[in-house]
Hints:
The protein has helices at 54-57, 117-131, 149-159, 171-175, 177-186, 200-207, 212-224, 244-253, 284-295, 342-353, 372-381, 399-402, 418-421, and strands at 3-11, 18-25, 31-37, 41-48, 88-92, 135-139, 163-168, 190-194, 228-232, 234-235, 258-265, 303-304, 313-320, 326-328, 383-389, 407-411, 414-417. By secondary structure, it is an alpha/beta fold. The chain has 2 domains: 3-57; 88-421, Aldolase class I (TIM Barrel). The strands form 2 sheets. Strands 5, 6, 7, 8, 9, 10, 11, 12, 13, 14, 15, 16 and 17 form a 13-stranded mixed beta sheet that branches. It has a 4-stranded antiparallel beta sheet with strand order 1-2-3-4. Helix 2 packs parallel to helix 3. The longest helix has 15 residues, at 117-131. The model is unreliable at 332-337 (pLDDT under 50).
Amino acid sequence: MGDIIRKTRSVCPVCLKNISALLVQEKDGCILLEKSCAEHGIYEVPVWHGKVGFETWLLGNPQLPDDKGLSCPGNCGLCSEHEIGSCCVLLEVTSRCDLHCRYCFARGGERTDEPSLEDLKASIRDIVRQCGDPLLQLSGGEPTMRDDLDELVRFAKEAGCSYVQLNTNGIRIAREPQYAKRMADAGLDIVFLQFDGTRDDIFESLRGVPLLEIKKEAIRICGELRLGVTLVPTVVKGVNDGDLGNIISLACAFSPAVRGIHFQPVSYFGRYPGIPADSERYTLDDLMADISEQSGIPVTSFMPSRCDHPLCGFHANFLLRPDGGLRPLSSVTYSSPVRGCERDNREYVARHWRRAPEEPVPEALFSDGMDFDTFLYRLRHESLTLSAMAFQDAMNLNLERLHRCSLHVYDRGRIKPFCAKYLTVME
Length: 427
């Protein structure tokens, strides 16, 4: 056994019972989450591979107190122990889907039910009542299976949601530009576009069909409508972890339509093809190291979140260079976490993922110099944000992380942390 560096709580992956857990550091720098269920046995899973300094990345976050998290996440909803309010709230608008992906947190397409328009409007009103003015993410299934999605977007903005984001595979947007225009006219802010790689064999492996040209067409249409696009790759070891640099290059080529890339290392909840071996686990520091190696971006450009738990993700900002490369605008700064930061976090997301309004191009943009006004113009129109979210499953769930989650899901009147809502038993 390695050195115990942190105590926390987790769940048994078989019965989901709340149990104690340890973070243990091996001699090679790998961090394991170790836990034991009296009924189902001992489990351990790698959560960090030592490619980035673990303790430094934690930003001084305290470990979970011994008297906290004892009943999580059973019957979960935001309670007095939860440390962060809602930055983004996800609302499932349908269970239908036009794909049947190998990995899907919501098991899209396995059912055909969906709430009525009036029920969804009531849910949006309740979300605003409970969460103030959140960024609302319309999700599914595949939300664009609904013909009335533009009406939902318009209602959400009128009801008080700061921003509305669409989580989509992009197929209908590519095939029906007028459908996309209706949503743009209704006030849609961000298109969160499933985008796993730059080759069709990647899409065939993860989504079952070749989709690259459809995805590119969806980006083109969103660009014409001035809808900000964020590419969302699900990163699976051995499938597309070697294509990360190519995804970044493609995003730069599609700027300013593409505003960011939000990488999601694969997690095993909802629908997935099988329980992974430890060697298949792809951790947040794996992702940072691979992006750096493939793109030349320094690892020091990536910053841990000061709103969600640092182990949940990273973000980094860049200006596009004339040669198609990226100029880092951020370098890691280590400071204590900030409470009550969800509103600032939401504005950060909106500022970097939405398309800025059209404005005159500064004359200095065409010269060798760059004054402050030109810099701000480029920041609004010629920048790219890289970010990541490492979701948790029943094997690697760390309740210390769950307590700082600001990505929430509306579930029949309750606001739940994302990883609690979609937690899935691993047989």
